[in-house]
Amino acid sequence: MQIENIKSILQSQRDFFNSGVTRNISFRREALKKLKEAIIKNEDKIFEALKKDLRKSKFESYAGEIGPVLKEIETHLRHLKKWTKTKRKPSPLVLFPAKSFIRQEPYGLTLIMAPWNYPFGLLFTPLIGAISAGNCVVLKPADYSSATSGLIEKMIAETFPDNYICVFQGGRDMNKALLEQGYDYIFFTGGRFLGEIVANAAVKDLTPCTLELGGKNPCIVDESANLKRTARRVVQGKLFNLGQTCITIDHLYVHKNIKNELVDLIGEEICRQFGRDPKKSPDLVRMINDKAFDRVSGYLNDAKILLGGKTDKEDKYIEPTLIELSDESLPVMQEEIFGPILPVISFNDLDKLLLKQLGKEKPLTLYIFSSNKKNIDKVLTTIDSGGACVNETLIHFINEKLPFGGVGNSGMGAYHGKFSFDTFSRKRSVVTSSTLFDIPIKFAPYKNKLGILKKVLK
Questions:
Q1: Hey, which residues does 323 pair with through a beta bridge?
Q2: 441 pLDDT above the threshold of 90
Q3: Number of independent structural domains in the chain
Q4: Higher pLDDT residue, 435 or 232?
Q5: Are residues 315 and 384 in the same domain?
Q6: Per-residue pLDDT band at 227 (split at 50, 70, 90)
Q7: Same structural domain, 240 and 187
Q8: 421, 85 in Cβ contact below 8 A?
Q9: Is the residue at 124 inside a domain?
């Protein structure tokens, strides 16, 4: 779709929504089934596109994108009838003889904007919620991941009419043009900079929105941690998608007494999972483009490298690298890294470390590796975050029974499973009253009725 088509397409979507077709539960279920069929039919093409954009292996593509999306569809198909059911609620005596209900209503026209790091999964997962809630949808995939975005546009065009679901590709000009239109809901996943632009556009029209942003996610490892397990899980979590993940470990706080041992074990784990020369591994993703490569590799200039450090710009390859930091004012600690570089920072006193974290922005995810229940509780209580994992990494994202979202600067709103349905629908309060009789106290004149009212409202 081109910029000049935006207004006409959006108007056609409004007309389609106003026709009431998308409110039909059977229509929504059929749309979800069609989406599932399209994904299964195009699975090999999705693999190819993700490999072209990020050099993802089939395993990572399925584990991080295709598999969770198919599972999400099944969850919505299984529970949609229950979720959409009007729910009866108790009515206070003062409302007698009325009955109270909550109806789940779709918003209408929704805009979903996705990032390049998981260009398939982070577009289709919220799309599922928008469909199951009964909305029409405008999809804006990422510009950087052009192979996947092109395939998505083709898939959607072949599966749905554009007055129901459509795709607009493009860069900043397209983003700007889309955000100038009016929507009933906006769902954005991406970086803080564009997130602020989206939020400002939403505020202008008082449009509700969900912002799934990022942040500098800390990982704290205390003396009681199982170091072998910690090393293995840190490597897996940090290097999944080459660290180009909003919930990846951004930096590592390690007790000074175990730092050297943990660094050695992490080095061994990198070799175990990706070989002695990770560049030759078929399982290691590449940086998305030269701009990202330059930004992330630039962090190595002022760093003390503990292991790794090799780069190849032509191949967009940055070796999995640990750097030691004693100064948190360096550039690497001022913005989300989004790459395979992991700063290691020693600490001696957990309480002092946690005290320093209180003044920082709230991360999207918090990680703690420990066998000490008091320390675990202390970390979870002190550091606020969108989500958290104890002795693991990333896995909270794939549990559709848990809400996924940020807090503060790392975002607002949540989705996955029923939380996606709730995000893309609103609870509408409805009270129906009998016309057989009236309660006189409600009507003027109010003389001598105040005492009765106080008793009724107790």
A1: 305, 343
A2: no
A3: 2
A4: 232
A5: yes
A6: very high
A7: no
A8: no
A9: yes
Domain presence at residue 458? no
Torsion of CA 240, 243, 244, 248, to 10 degrees: 90
> Domain holding 342: CATH number?
3.40.309.10
Cα separation, 193 vs 288, in Å, equals 18
Contact between 139 and 167 (Cβ < 8 Å): yes
Task: Give the CATH number, domain containing residue 185.
Answer: 3.40.605.10
CA pair distance 313, 150, nearest whole angstrom: 25
Kindly state whether residues 255 and 277 are assigned to the same domain: yes
- Given a contact cutoff of 8 angstroms between Cβ atoms, the answer to whether 201 and 24 are in contact is no
Q: Please say if the pLDDT value at position 94 is more than 80.
A: no
Cis-peptide, bond into residue 92, ω within 30° of zero: no
Domain membership flag for residue 448: no
Residue whose token pair is 């577009």? 123
One domain, residues 270 and 148 = no
Classify residue 197: in a domain, yes or no. Answer: yes
- Tell me which amino acid residue 73 is: I
Which has more confidence, 285 or 443?
285
CA distance 24 to 41: 26
Q: How many angstroms from the chain centroid is the CA of residue 386? A: 10
Q: How many whole angstroms separate alpha carbon 1 and alpha carbon 10?
A: 12
- Bridge partners, 100 (sequence order): 89, 431
Q: Which of left, alpha, beta for 241 (phi over 0: left; psi -120 to 50: alpha)? A: left
Instruction: Give me the domain span that covers residue 292.
Output: 218-398
* Residue keyed to tokens 């509780």: 377
Q: Which residues are catalytic?
A: 212, 246
Q: Is 106 helix (H, G, I), strand (E, B) or coil?
A: strand
Cβ-Cβ contacts under 8 Å for 395 (sequence gap 6 or more): 389
Structure tokens at 132: 């199951």
Identify the band that residue 184 occupies on the pLDDT scale cut at 50, 70 and 90.
very high
